[in-house]
Amino acid sequence: MKQPFAHSMMPQASHDELARQIFATSLRMHIEDEVMAGDELLYEKKVKPAMALANGAALQNYKDIRKHMEREPYYQMWSSLVKTGKEMLWDSVGESVERQLPELIARSKPAKPLGSLTLDPALPVPRYHAACDIHWMPGAYHREITKDDVYAGALYDRGSYYVVAAIMGKAGNNLPDKTHTARGAFHYLDQHHPNFRPKRILDLGCAIGSSTVPYTDKFPDAEVHGIDVGAPLLRYGHARAEAMGKRVHFSQQNAERTNFPDGYFDLVVSHAMAHETSSKAIRNLLKESYRLLAPGGLSYHTERKFFYGLSDYEAYLNDWDTFYENEPFKGTLRECDPRDLMREAGFASSEIFFFGTNRAGGFFEPGHPQAFGSIFGARKV
Ligand SMILES: C[S@@+](CC[C@H](N)C(=O)[O-])C[C@H]1O[C@@H](n2cnc3c(N)ncnc32)[C@H](O)[C@@H]1O
């Protein structure tokens, strides 16, 4: 399989480490493609008919499906394999990062940076991050194991490449070496706002800047900022952007309440962040985005699919992460209609949009079978 894009901050793998990383990814691909097919068969042939007999079809929803499936040995095997496979993946990448940590820390302090890094050691980590290691990433995004630590950032950079490849099953073998979560949003901008030229851009929950850096290429004249709560991510992200010759201003801030002035930005975005917050936090950060936008500015958020329009079986499968992947808010977010959240945050109904998206730049009704992800947002009038 192809390997992650090798800029000079990327932790490298020895021969044996690479073998373990590819094995762990391939195991997860096999589970996605082959073992998961058995789960659907189990549902169609056994669980669905049994549920219909017990409850009557009208009473079924995706939450009932989980309760019934959990009693089945095949489901239990599939479910524990997914979790073990994910833990193996992080562990296999963690080995490479631990071995190179001192060098990575030394390399993370560029002498003449183009951009900037502002940390706030007093910033509290929100409970929705401190309470569990999100998606089983050891230490989550914020934990520090040594001085000037970049461990979480390096783990996320190399590890998330394999995690995404694994989720795609066999198709993950063709994952390009350079991927970023802002791609769907760029299709949206190209198709819906081709003449939009923001002067200041803010990426909320930027992690290591993999969604932020592409904005410096898309809008080379803009001032690009990324904020996150995790210091080890930001140290690594700053060094990574510098290694690529990109000017980004990273700061450690909570997106629910930032220190930027009112109306400072023309574009406020987040990528794959909303589902890792909480019911209260998402409302706060949407309100904060509204405050930060100049009139005429645009805000959007990209995510995987919402449950909107999915079959009960698909919704049950997508909801697995809520219970077993340490992503406790995922289901609650995907159950809601994000247009309501945008209205609550102050955006005018007429300006709000919500689409299902795919990698090729298609836009669909949310929940459409061809949609892989989603984008919601609004312009501030
Ligand atoms: C799944 S990562 C996505 C990172 C990046 N946008 C990307 O596409 O690769 C979600 C990030 O959101 C950050 N985050 C979550 N809640 C936050 C908050 N309230 N303020 C700032 N960052 C937050 C987490 O620390 C994490 O780095």
What descriptive keywords fit this protein?
alpha/beta, globular, binds S-adenosylmethionine, 13 helices, Rossmann fold, 381 residues
List the helices and strands and how they pair.
Elements: H1 15-55, H2 62-69, H3 73-107, E1 116-118, H4 127-130, H5 151-167, H6 183-192, E2 200-204, H7 213-218, E3 223-228, H8 231-243, E4 249-252, E5 265-271, H9 279-292, E6 293-304, H10 312-318, H11 320-324, H12 330-335, H13 338-344, E7 352-357, E8 363-364, E9 373-379
Parallel strand pairs: 1-4, 2-3, 2-5, 3-4, 5-6
Antiparallel strand pairs: 6-9, 7-8, 7-9
Helix pairs in contact: 1-2, 1-3, 1-5, 2-10, 3-5, 5-8
The structure holds S-adenosylmethionine (SAM).
S-adenosylmethionine binds next to β3.
Model description:
By secondary structure, this protein is of the alpha/beta class. It has two domains: 15-110 and 128-174, no CATH class; 183-379, Rossmann fold, CATH 3.40.50.150. It contains 13 helices and nine strands. It has helices at 15-55, 62-69, 73-107, 127-130, 151-167, 183-192, 213-218, 231-243, 279-292, 312-318, 320-324, 330-335, 338-344; strands at residues 116-118, 200-204, 223-228, 249-252, 265-271, 293-304, 352-357, 363-364, 373-379. Helix 7 (213-218) links the parallel strand 2 and strand 3. The longest helix is centred in the N-terminal third of the chain and has 41 residues, at 15-55. The termini are far apart. S-adenosylmethionine binds at residues 126, 129, 141, 181, 204-207, 210-211, 227-230, 233, 254-256, 271-273, 276-277, 281.
